[in-house]
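Bumping with the actual sequence this time:
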Amino acid sequence: MTSRTALIVRGGWDGHHPVETTETFLPFLRSNGFEVRIEESPRVYADADVMSGVDLVVQAVTMSEADAESIEGLRAAVAAGTGLAGWHGGIVDSYRHDAAYLQLVGGQFAAHPRKDPGDRADPATDAFVEHRIEITDLGRTHEITSGIDDFPLVTEQYWVLHDDLNDVLATTTHPVRVDEPWHRPVVSPAVWTREWGRGRVFVATPGHDPGVLTDPHLRTIIERGLLWTSRRASG
């Protein structure tokens, strides 16, 4: 099998377990022919020589900051064919104040609504709500999500701000809640891809902790997403 290079960039808020979650994908990546490099800072994005040899970036950095040179390096690498993939806050709640990064990824975490007041018992899990991941018509034919039916999760349900360049493969619906100001159900993308120059971007919004990443449907989607996003042979 031809070797490819995967760069895992992880860090930021520890509550999303950046080390533990990324470690669970190492066997999968290696079994699919990737040599894996791990960095604890996005500063590596600024190294054009390194990035030119990266076929896939797997990012797990919640919040934190990256300087303009690093973000521009990442954007340039993806435009040249490097894939960018991630899940949950590690990709859609990264570098919140950098508009160039947000444009690249195509979505930004806004909220994870909590249970109704009478059902809350622990601040650590009050945002773990039962919800469904619903495959779109596009998702039913896309190689990342084909053959996967709608499925339930009990975890954080991300409400994300997004744009029309995304190809949405799955959505989730936020119901009206008794103590929240919205007055109708709100559909939010849960899985999407994005073409950026010669590169591809893949995002799955579920993935708060290692436990939810064991869900077989979500796991399959992310694993397929990593392979689909990696640099194409013609790139």
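The tokens above came from a reply further down the thread. Residues 216-229 form the longest helix (14 residues).
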